[in-house]
Every structure is written in C-alpha cells, then in structure tokens.
Amino acid sequence: MNLQTHLVKTISGLCLLFTLLVINPAQAQQATWIWYPGDYEIWLANDMQNRRTERGAFFPPFWRMDSHYVLIDFHKEFNLAKPEEVELYAEGQYNVKLDSKMLPGTPTKVTIPAGKHKLNIKVHAQDKVPAIFVKGPTIVSDSTWLVTFEDKEWIDETGKVSGQSGTAWLKAGSWNFNDPNNLPSKFKLATEPWKAAKVTRQPGSILVDFGKETFGFVKLQGLKGKGKVSLYYGESQEEALATETGETLDHLQVDRPQAVDMVLPGSRAFRYVNIQFDNTVNIGDVSMLYEYLPVADRGKFRSSDPELNKIWDVAAYTLHLNTREFFIDGIKRDRWIWSGDAYQSYLMNYYLLFDSPSVTRTLLAQRGKDPVTSHINTIMDYTFYWFLGINDYYQYTGDKSFVKQFYPRMQSLMEFALNRRNKNGMVEGLAGDWVFIDWADGLSKQGEVSFEQLLLCRSLETMALCANIAQDQEGARRYNELAAELKAKLFTTYWDQNKHALVHSRVNGQPTDNVTRYANMFAIFFDYLNAGQKQEVKQHVLLNDKVQKITTPYMRFYELEALCAMGEQDYVLKEMKDYWGGMLKLGATSFWEKYDPNEKGAEHYAMYGRPFGRSLCHAWGASPIYLLGKYYLGVKPTSPAYATYLVEPDLGGLEWMEGSVPTPKGDINIYCSQKQIKVKSGEGTGTLRFQSKNKPSSKGNKITAKGNNTYEMFIEKGKEYVVAYTAK
Amino acid sequence: MNLQTHLVKTISGLCLLFTLLVINPAQAQQATWIWYPGDYEIWLANDMQNRRTERGAFFPPFWRMDSHYVLIDFHKEFNLAKPEEVELYAEGQYNVKLDSKMLPGTPTKVTIPAGKHKLNIKVHAQDKVPAIFVKGPTIVSDSTWLVTFEDKEWIDETGKVSGQSGTAWLKAGSWNFNDPNNLPSKFKLATEPWKAAKVTRQPGSILVDFGKETFGFVKLQGLKGKGKVSLYYGESQEEALATETGETLDHLQVDRPQAVDMVLPGSRAFRYVNIQFDNTVNIGDVSMLYEYLPVADRGKFRSSDPELNKIWDVAAYTLHLNTREFFIDGIKRDRWIWSGDAYQSYLMNYYLLFDSPSVTRTLLAQRGKDPVTSHINTIMDYTFYWFLGINDYYQYTGDKSFVKQFYPRMQSLMEFALNRRNKNGMVEGLAGDWVFIDWADGLSKQGEVSFEQLLLCRSLETMALCANIAQDQEGARRYNELAAELKAKLFTTYWDQNKHALVHSRVNGQPTDNVTRYANMFAIFFDYLNAGQKQEVKQHVLLNDKVQKITTPYMRFYELEALCAMGEQDYVLKEMKDYWGGMLKLGATSFWEKYDPNEKGAEHYAMYGRPFGRSLCHAWGASPIYLLGKYYLGVKPTSPAYATYLVEPDLGGLEWMEGSVPTPKGDINIYCSQKQIKVKSGEGTGTLRFQSKNKPSSKGNKITAKGNNTYEMFIEKGKEYVVAYTAK
C-alpha cells in the first residue's frame, strides 16, 4: 500500500469517526455538566498555570488570576407532554425551586408535572465551580439552560417575589462532562504508560532516555528503602546531567520498607531523566505515564519530500504536547496561557485538530473577568491577539453564540486598550504595559510602534464584526470608524516611500529610520497594503537580508505566512526545510522556542540568561502545520464555518502532496501532483483555483478560465473531483 | 453596693482591661496573619451568608458573591542592623524571594542578612484566602506589608526583570490571627456550653426552653439507638410546636449503638427546641453550645428607671447576638449582611462595643469587588447607607488608612449610582433596583422618591470628605458640586409650604401630595433643614398622627433620633418605654424585626406571608443603645476619633443616669442627676454642655454661660469633673 491509498483509507475511516462524533444541535438530548460560561475555564486555568515549578519552587504567573462566581442560579422552562422524574447532581451546596417555590432539603430527584414549568437550581461552591447535571427522559442539562450570578429575586413584606429583576442571563457553559460521575472539579488529562527507550545505570544513579520529548509523570517501579531520591529532568541530555542548572527537578524523601511502584505527583516535560539516589534506596525499573488531551488528528499531510513529512509529523507532535487543558506556550517551563502563543495554536488547530473547545477554553481563560486592570498577560500585543483569535475563531467555526455571550468582555477589554491611547490616538507602552513584539536583540519598544497600531486596527475591525453579530449597531459604527481612522494614520505616519516599507516606530513625534519585518509582514496578510506596496515590501523587507533577521519560530510563522500570501511557496518551502529541517538535523524531536543556526552545541539550550532556559517543545514551533494546510494544500474559509471556501493548492516545488483539512462538519481532502488534482469535501461550497500551463479537464465538471493561466471550478459537498492539468 | 458604685468599679476594671488591650501602632511588633485587604472579609462573608437554611433547604443570597484574589504577592523592605532568621507560614502554595531572587523549594525559614533587603512571598489558594504569617526577632507580618494581585514582574530575553510595573500596592489586611497556628481559613466563633432552662418530656418528644432567645448548636446528650430525630426550632414556643410551618428545622438519621453526645452541625437561632424522635431512639439530656463573637461591652447605661435599664440590657443582648462574623440582620432567618441593617449596628456599636474590625469587615464584605453590577444587596438605599457607614466610621474612629485603601471602591460604587440618575439628575428605581425604604403598607416606591435623593446627597458629601483624605482634589470638587446641586433640588422639588414638609416623591414630573416621615426625619439629623423648617417638620410630620406611622424598629431608630436631635428626649423616653417596653411586656428576650402594638398573640410572629416569618432577634431592634448613648448620656465626636467631642447629657425625665461611652483610646464616663453631673474622659478634648436653672459650679473648673440657661465647660483627658447644677 503506497502512502496515497493509505491516506485515503485513513481519511475514510476518519470521516466515519467524525460522522459519529459530530453532534447535531437540533437533536441534542445529551445531558452534560453545565456552569456559568467562562467560569470553569478560569478555574481550570488557575489550577494549571499554578503548576509551574522552577527547581522545585512554586512559580506562578505575574498577572491577575480571576475566580469563578461562587453562587450561580441555573434555570430552564419546560413544556412537558407528561410528567417526568429527573435526577439532579451538583458540584456544591444547592437548592431546587419548581415554579419559583423552593423544595425542602436537598432533593436528588424531582418530578416535573406535565405542562409548562420552570426548574431552578442554585449552587454555591468556593473551591470549585458551581455546576449541575440534570437528567430525565427529555429534560437534560445542556447549553440551553440559562444562568446568572445574581438572580435578584427579592421578596416584599408579603412574600411576593420582585419579578422585575433586570438580571442578565447567559447560556450555560459546558465541555464534555457527559456523565454524572465525571465531575468537572476532578478533571484530569488522560494518561498512558510509556516505557523508556534506554536506561543507563550507575551506582546511585539512573539516566533514562525516553527516546523523544515527552510529558507526564515518572514512575519509579520497585522503589524500596529509606533515603533521598532526586530527579533531574532534561529536554536534552546535557540538561538532565546539569544537576545545578537544569530547569526542573524533584526531591523525594523515601521510606518504603516494601517495594512499591511510585508515580511522581507532578507532571514534567523531558526526554531524559537523571535519577540520583542514596545507596539505602533501590529502584527497579523507570517508566512514565504520558499525559495528554485525547483529541484526534483530523488534518493530514503527506508529500513527495520525506523531510517535509517529518517536519509535519514533528510539528503535529509539538502541537499535541502543547494542547492540554489549554493551549500553552511550552511544556517544560511556563505552561502558562500566553495569548500570542495561543493565537498561533488556534490557527494550527484549524488545520490539525479542529478542536473548538480548546480554542474557547483558552480564549476565556485568558480574558478572565472585569474589571480589566492590565493587558492580557500584561502584554499589549497579546491583548490584540486575543481579538484576532476571536476573528479567526468566528471565520473557521461560525460560532455566533460565543461572540454574543462574550461580546461584553470584548467591549470592556477594548475600552481598556482605547483608554490607553495617547493624544495622537495611538497606543504606546505605559507603566505596566509590556510591549513584547518578539524576542530579538536590541528591538526598540519605545514610542508609537507601528506593529502595535496595526494590531489595534485589526482588533477594532474584529470589534466591528462582533458588534454586528451581537446586534450592537452603534458599536459597529464606532469601531469601524476608529479602525478606518487608525488605518489611514498607519500610512501617513509610518509609510516611507524611500524605504518602500512601514518604519518601526515614531518616537517624540518623529518616525524612526528603522525598518523591521513585523508591521510589514502583518500588513501583507491583513491586506492593508495595495498590490504595489506588497511588492515593495516583499523586495525591500521580506527578501532583504539587511533587515534584522527573525530568529524565533514565533515570528517566522508570520514572515513565512506573508511570503506564502505573496505566492512565494517555492521560497518558503526551502526556508521551512532549512529552519525546521535544521532543528531536525540537530536531533530535535519537537520544535523549539527559538532556533539560531549560528549557535553551536549547548548554546541552543540557553535563554533568559540561564543555560537551559530555552524550551525545546514550544507550540509556536509547530507553524508548518498551518502553512502547509493553508498555503500548500491551500484551503481556507471565505465565509464563516466554511459555508464557502477556497482550495488553491500550490506544490511549491513538490512532486506531489496530499492531505486533509478539517472543517466544522467534515473534511476537505486534496491530492495534488504536477498532473492531477483531486478534491473531495464534506462541507460547504468550495472553489478550486489552480494554475495550469494547458487547458485542464475534469470529467463532466465545468472549469472556468480566469485568465493568466488561472482556472476555477466549483466544488459541491460530498462529490469527488479529479482534474487533469499541467502544473505551471 | 448601689448601682452607681458598682458601675464605677466596673468602669475602673474595664479601663485597666482596655489599657492592656489597646495596641500602640508605633510599638506594634505583633506578628499577625495578613492578606489582600478586603479579601478575607469577602471569603468569610460567602461562608457565613451561605449558611442560611429554610426548613432544611439551602437558602443563599440573591445578589452577586465575589471571591478573593487567588494569587497574591506580599512584600516588605527591611533595613536590619544584624542578620535575622524568620519563620514563614502561608495559607496556600507559596514561594519566597529575597531581593527578587527566588529561593529553592518552599522554605519555612529564611535568614535575612544585615542591611537593606526585600522579602517577597507569593501565595496561591483557591479554596481559602492566600495569607502569610512571618515572625522573626524584628521582622513580622503586619499591616505595613504591601500586597498586590498582579506584580507584573516579567523578564526579558536576558532574564532582566521589567522594573517598571505600574502595579498598585495596598497595605495588607489583617484581623486578630496573631498565632501561626490560628489559621484564618479555620476561623470559628467562640462557643460555651449552656444548659436548658426547662425540659418537657413526652413519649417521642422533648420540648426544651433555653429561657431566652439564643444562638448556637444544640447538643443531644446520651443519644442512642437507630431512627429518625427531627429538631424544630422556635423563637417562640408556638413556632417550635408548629412542625409544618416553623422556619428552621433539622432532620437526622441516627444510628448509634452506644450512647454518645452529639452536637448538631448547624448553628440555629432559638429559644425553644421541639425534638421529635422515633421510639427506637433515646435522648438523655439536651443542652447547647452558645456561639458568639468574643467582644466586650465598653458602653454602659444605668438609670433610675428599671424598665429603661431592661430595655438597654435586652438591646445590648440583641446587638451581641447579631454581631458575629459580621453585623447581620437577624439570627433566625437571613443571617445575611444587609447594608441598611448593618448601618444601624455600626452606630450602636460605637456606643456599646466600639469594635472597629467588625465595622470594617462588614463594610468590605458588603462592597465586594468591581465591577459594580447591582446596588448593595440590590437595594438602592442600601448602597447609600454604605457610604454613610464610612462617613460615621471615619468620624468615630478617624481611620484614614481605611478610607485611602478603599477610596477606589467608593468611587466605582458612586459612579454606578450616578450613572443610574435620570435626566433630572435624580435616582429612581430602574430594572434590578430594589427601592426599599421600609416595610410599610402601601408605601410607594415609584418615581423620584425624596428619601433616596436625600441619601444620595449625603453619600456625595461623604465622597467629597473621603476624596480629600485620599488626596483626590478634583474628585472632592466634583462631589461637593454634585452634592450642592442635589441639595438645592431637594428643596425646590419636594418642599411643600402648605404641608410644612418634604413630600414623598415626584412621579411623572409632578410632586405627590403624600407626606411620609422618611425624608423629613433624615433631613433633621442631616441638618439639611433650617431651624424654622425643623420646627415645622416636628409639628406637622413627626408629632402628627395623621402621617403614616412607622412600625419597624428599623425606621423607629431614625424617627426617634430626629426627635432627640430636636431636644424631645422626654417624649422619646416615653416612646421607647411604650415601644420597646411593649415588646418586653409580651415576653421578648431580644428585640424584634417589627412590632405593631395593635397585633395580638401569634400575629406578632408572622411576616412575609409566613406564620413565623418574623425575626424576634433583629439587630435594628437594638437602637436604644445608640439613642441612650448619643442623646441621653449625650456623647458624640465633633472631630474624627473624638479628638474633640461634646457631652450634652439630657435626663429626658429620668431622676438620674450613669454610663460609659467608648472612644478609640479610652472611655467617657458620665453620671448625671437633677443636681449633679460627673464626667471623666480617657480621650481628646471635650465640651460639657448642659442647662441649669441656677448658676452651676465645679470646684476649680471654669464654667461658661452661653445664655438661655446653657453652660459649657472644657473637659481634659484623665481628669474627673463634678458639676453642681439644677436641671431645667
């Protein structure tokens, strides 16, 4: 079986799987644990983000962590044909009201009579999120229930309820806790036992190599005796052996007269574990429990280039490792939810997992609650990426409900940002604002940085889009106006005719001479530049080695995206092979936080002034997934939720490629060689666009010539199209 | 020993006690548990307010409950003459930084070198409030430590800390947890065992009478057997016997082969307990654990009228029962923190306990956190009482630190209220606003109610005062201006020349005909009326039986205060004896939520449409404490913290009275008969003002005639003054 037929089989299998998995909202009678929307996400994020340790010390975030509301009222009105008994479960103390009358005690079952009735459940919990699970023949707890943190149901002296509460009710939040015994507060990621690849024993020490970067709980098997055991974790062997300077470790005091298998309580990132122990202690074997979020790959990519396939595989593994309770930055060190990092994970996710709950969990955890006292993660650019993340989320999923529910939180965050503009209507770093942009030597953050204005402008466009969805016409008008004003200012302020580029910043009223890649590359794929300007930027910035080079995969993501958007797939393919291939040649089993080909040996592991400070498994290292899906397989939505979409394959010099791009309700499968394109889609109405040196043909399907060797063909859902053509 | 000498002895004893108890801030080296200010109060209030039950069902509040910040950084800078080792304790996970460098692991001790150093401790806890306790020879955790929920200490790529964080640091909050093992999260009120006064046994039932209203945990002694036990609590015997309609109960399923003493887990309010049990169960004796906040009476009152003395005692007991984790409304039912109720408790507190932590705990719990989404307790008037409570708190205690720390929360609450004004600049009930005023039949809440504008006006004056303390000059100017505008409008809008009063409201632009007591009586003691208007209001409203009578002790408080402020102590004394004496004649052992002398028998127990809905131990029933202290003993501060004060005794027809009024640093003791006044004060510089028919004398002290039979004399701290005079 060649790769191609294997892939087709896999795709067929996946299609069946996803048909089973997709929930039809109209039929949904699946009872699930529900809560105040956003609260569980905040609670779980607090738990996860406070698990970071540095050499055994607790190392929490430096921004505000919010809390769930501790007292929530859940309700729904029903119209029953016949009476039904429902089971009630709650996380926390609770009471139950039927038609606004409180039932005695704490009922675990209640019978709802036939006819119109209203069921309220009010829950209090401080240590966990108030949540309920309700299950009856037709009545179930799901996202159609309404929730509030203040029901304002006061009574007057006669006992009459106010009835004019002015309370805002939201739809309940949920995830996938579909069993009453599967308590949200007890959530754990899945684990599976993994064996070591290589174990090297010496007296009082064991060095274990798990063969590749991994994450989980080390298991000491046959542990016996009394004494000290220390575990030094390493993403590299050098780090595991550097007991004084490695980033993570665990010290145990063991007292086990009988041999036991002990699983370490904290999950760590590592490939190597260096275990040092007293000679009064015996350790049998060492293995681990690999910890992961069970979410299947829906995106696929294979090509004629084995190195590129390896890059795709390692990128996919890197993204999986960083897709956990939330999309995190990297598995060794922070394990925090950084908005700029997560934003890229969202985009990759749309081409690999299409796991929307992971996107919304992460967006909600980042946003937290009002009042806004800081930028997200304290970083100005990261506030703006949050808005961009919602823009993309809506484009890829079409989820209006999310936008409507959280539009008020979008508004208050945007007001925070707008209130920090200077007299020119531009943002610059005030006290407490971290202007990040990128890790780059000597990068100036002073004054009005063009890149930040660009992100604000796009965020304002996002607000206008969401205001329309939330039916806030006045807001839409205002945000559109602010965006248009700022967009005009971008060009009058930063565009330098001589440099053919946007300059980096304006300081003390004077545009600087400095040209950096950041604003310029974003301006391309935001489509803020006209065609001429794009060409100027391509030549004078993107392809100009005199402009400071980007060394993080983080910003390489956008640089390569900009080049792809300019049709430079051939060039980008070489860059990918150089850059990600370069990491592979150094033995990378996951992609790094930063890679500089000029560095040597253990220099690759250093960062933040620490010899092993660098993360060797960082989500932003996985961008080839996104680039290959969007710009080589060439699939992207042209209206929300893939109602319409474009398939514009570009081999970029490959002989052939094939793959699958997930959409909300199905996958789009593509095969493309120099002679043939095959497309089959489970979703929406697509346009296949391609270039051919001669007139292409597709049995019985109409192909329209668009001039300049470009052709288009409509793609209907469910039908397989085969096009014969000759690649340019 | 007559009452008078007994009192003097008691006072001397108390003075000694308080000398020992008073902490001198300059010397304070008392280590205490500290937290983010306001957070412990919110957490403890959530715990307390969610303990309400109604016939066994959990009955939480209907307003938003906030949470503590789950991640807090505590720090302090020290300059040590020599190194010292300090012990560290924390509630939650924590790390320790010395001079911004994180120490490994979780240190329980740290040595601070000599010289200038900075110690940071960062704590995370979700289920309880992050708190620390630090104790060394000179270094201790106290309110001089600084805290924040976002330290914003990001690092750049080289590991350098930002150093320009823009973080707001507050002074740490604390209470009295002065021992490392006395954990704030484990707080419990004190208990002591109380015996029953009378036990009536029948087969399968025991009726216990504890002799008076009380609060605590019932203890079933010698409990044995298997079966059901039900406890029906009653503030009255009728309620305890009304097993179907009483307000509180507990059902137990007992299975005790051996006789045990069982303390019920929930604290309840009761005088009577009706215990019903299966014949398979044996109960030996029944007693209880009385639960209370250990805080001593500093205020005292005795007079020639035994009934008045009884009123004072029962009022004091009523206030004690309702002074718990916080000042609550009543002990049987809500046990919630109602701002209007608490406001009165604050005032009584200044004349009985002078327990400032109870005031600030309650103010902070009520206020919660931003954003403001509702009035306090959802009630418009209750928002305003919160501001008034701070005004009084500052007057009585002079605590500028509290005002400075929480001025931002005052601002945001005031903005909420101001944003709800209508086009006339007046407040009226919008959706979600409960306009309460009083429990009174047919009382209109429609339109622009004069009473609400009056409270808003006083709140704005409070904001102006506090703005000056917080050095917000612009705010002070604005609030003063808004207050002056509104005050002027009060008279142009509501003052009715023909009715000699402020009318109740304006509806649809038309002042109503209705005159009620509320706005008029507040306008007197707010001193908003001129002397002529005061007399008009006194005659045409306060002493006019045609104006709807007040039936709640809640509003009686203000009505009688207004009359006292007009010199009607003789009249008010009779009213007190009628009203509170009336409750005593019905057997009250604590004062009620509502008393209507026209009601008969069990009618007195009904409210809210429920036969035992009324609370028979309600804080607002204890107002004689305040009236007797402020308007009979006649003591009140004339500048913050009793730096200056007035003593203006008024016998109101009594032959003699004597008592003690607490101040921040000492007590003011007064004896007053028709012939003699004795004053001794431990605080400030006072003015004794009194009326005498003939020329008074005081050995060696200068008495100044002020005309109209009024005399004044200065009172210096620590000296006893005896004045011979002849009462008017």
**Global Rg of chain A:** 28 Å
- Main interface by residue count: A-B, 69 and 69 residues
CATH fold field value of the largest domain in chain A: Glycosyltransferase
* Low-confidence blocks of residues of chain A: 1-28
Global mean pLDDT of chain A: 94
Whole-number tally of structural domains of chain A: 4
Counted beta strands of chain A: 35
Bulk shape of chain A = globular
Q: Given the helix and strand composition of chain A, which structural class is it?
A: alpha+beta
Distance N to C terminus of chain A: 30 Å
Give the biggest beta sheet of chain A. 7 strands, antiparallel
Percent of residues in helices of chain A comes to 25-40%
Sheet-strand content of chain A, in percent, reads 25-35%
Regarding quaternary structure, what we see is homodimer
Specify the CATH architecture of the largest domain in chain A.
Alpha/alpha barrel
Q: Any idea of the CATH class of the largest domain in chain A?
A: Mainly Alpha
Distinct helical segment count of chain A: 15
Keywords (chains A, B): Signal
Pfam families (chains A, B): Bac_rhamnosid-like_N, Bac_rhamnosid6H
InterPro entries (chains A, B): 6-hairpin_glycosidase_sf, 6hp_glycosidase-like_sf, Bac_rhamnosid6H, Rhamnosid-like_N_bacteroidetes
Protein name (chains A, B): Alpha-rhamnosidase
